[in-house]
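Suppose a colleague, Dr. K., hands you the sequence of a protein chain of 452 amino acids and asks what its three-dimensional shape might be. Before reaching for any lab equipment, you can write down a predicted structure in token form. Begin with the sequence itself:
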Amino acid sequence: MKIIIVGAGEVGFHISQRLSEENQDVILIDKDPGKVKRITENLDAQVYLGSGTSPRLLKEAGVREADMLVAATDSDEVNLIACLLGRTLNPYMLKVARVRNPEYIREEGLAVREALGIDHIINPESVMVETILSLMEVPGASEVINFVGGKVKLIGFVIPPGSPFDGRPLHSFQGVDGRILVGAIIRGSQVIIPRGSDVIHADDLVYVVVRNEELPEILRRFGLREEHLRRVIIVGAGQTGVALATALDRSGIGVKIIDRDEEKCRALAEDFKNVIVIHGDGTDRDLLLEENIGDVDFLVALTGDEENNVLISLLGKGLGARKTITRISKLSYIPLVSAIGIDTVVSPRLSAVRALLQYIRKGKIVSVAPLKGEHAEAIEAEALETSLIVNQRLSKVKFPKGAIAGAIVRGDEIHIPRGDSVVLPGDRLIIFARHEVIPKLEKLLTVKLDYF
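The predicted structure, expressed as tokens, is then:
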């Protein structure tokens, strides 16, 4: 594919890195010389210095021959205009815009997507709120990803020392365990797409596929607590913090939101009925103690200052908060903050990358979730009638080494696949794959050559 990316910031750089490693034809456009230099020094990609709103530059970059235009700058207006120009210059390519302002999406009568010819709009903040809400459903998990409208969940959690699963080979699972599929194991910096002979060890980050209705039993088997969510403190009353507070307020959970901006707090206090709005500094230890931080189920740090978010989470954890969720924008920080004891990290930029990948992957892809460490992906795809994966036993399908089928969803039925399972046209598949085998996997999911 030939993909033009407007914006070489964190999102543009990260998605370009992923695609260039897969030998995709990637072209970047950015007006910041520093970002352009970073791309040229680190990635195998063409780069143009200038604005993505320049018709001349878009034509020079080859927009008329491109398969996709991704507008991922920090400016909604630049992204929207770039897609509008892209529609005029090449109406046949796919156009994806990163848009943060909810007014562009929700305001009735604007019809931004239709008016500008945008195929997909990505709002990272809304994706991030959904991620946080999913994490709150399973307090002991490091990551929770919903597939097939929530019917199937991917739960990531760390195996504690002394766990009954420590030292167990995967082929030993029986009974209830037989309805469990371990899709990936993260061991230090190593990503393992496991086979039956692989063994789980303490401190492994394990990703497990479970049916939603079986979640309580699976959590019990793995020693994860399932507790009723009672109290949440959110630090940061920005767009994400307010959206999260609004969602939690509807569910009847006790929510407090803290922010330094007195005027913003006053306005929010008038808007919210049940959420308690507090004007103050989330890094203030005395304030957190005053608000009974030791009795909260979740402390969520969502300010625009990631260093403060890390400090708030570490402080809250030290004062007794059961679980913390920390917003980090710089993707390079994520492995570092995880190493110093931060429970869970969410990132608007990583949310944008996840959303973009589903439109870039070949085949009928419904969603894509990069796993921790970014060296593997969980992919939800629809099995096409003309693909190589259908109408034969999975044991006969030539899955690339480093890929495994995690679930087959057929109507309301959810199957944990075995070697004799058969994928039918229209089935939804959850597939785990190491990053380097994605191109081979895509061939299985796309149309057979002899179909034509």
